[in-house]
């Protein structure tokens, strides 16, 4: 039996985004069609010289095992991993701009190591109430 996947989802473990992410999986019929890399904001590991090799190797392993051709980055604002890594934001617009800038760098890193992969980015805003909403990327 073949175990093929179309996507590799790279996503944070923050429980606040689970409901919106689950909705995305259902609406886009993703179940059974993706691998995932999920821990406290793994997207930041692409920007860490000590960790980027490990995450690229994991993507290569998943590609060898299941054949995905698209990496989908699910990035959320109000991220504790960003704070832990020393990021300070002036306001919502500044935070979103930094996330977008970082994700452009991540896309370049993925494409330079895995040129056949498509890379998409999905952004989630977390309101003060805890409610989540998708942002246009």
UniProtKB/TrEMBL annotation:
Pfam families named in the record: Pro_CA_2
Domain of life the protein comes from: Bacteria
Name this protein carries in UniProt: Carbonic anhydrase
Organism: Candidatus Kuenenbacteria bacterium GW2011_GWA2_42_15
């Amino acid at each position: 039996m073949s175990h093929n996947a179309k996507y590799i989802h790279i996503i944070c473990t923050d429980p606040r985004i689970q409901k919106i992410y689950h909705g995305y999986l259902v609406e886009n019929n993703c179940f059974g069609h993706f691998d995932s890399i999920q821990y406290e904001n793994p997207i930041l590991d692409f920007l860490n010289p000590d960790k980027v090799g490990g995450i690229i190797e994991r993507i290569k392993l998943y590609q060898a095992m299941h054949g995905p051709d698209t990496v989908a980055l699910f990035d959320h604002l109000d991220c504790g991993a960003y704070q832990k890594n020393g990021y300070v934001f002036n306001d919502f617009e500044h935070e979103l701009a930094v996330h977008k800038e970082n994700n452009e760098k991540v896309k370049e890193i993925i494409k330079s190591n895995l040129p056949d992969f498509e890379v998409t980015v999905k952004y989630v805003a977390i309101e003060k109430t805890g409610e989540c909403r998708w942002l246009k990327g």
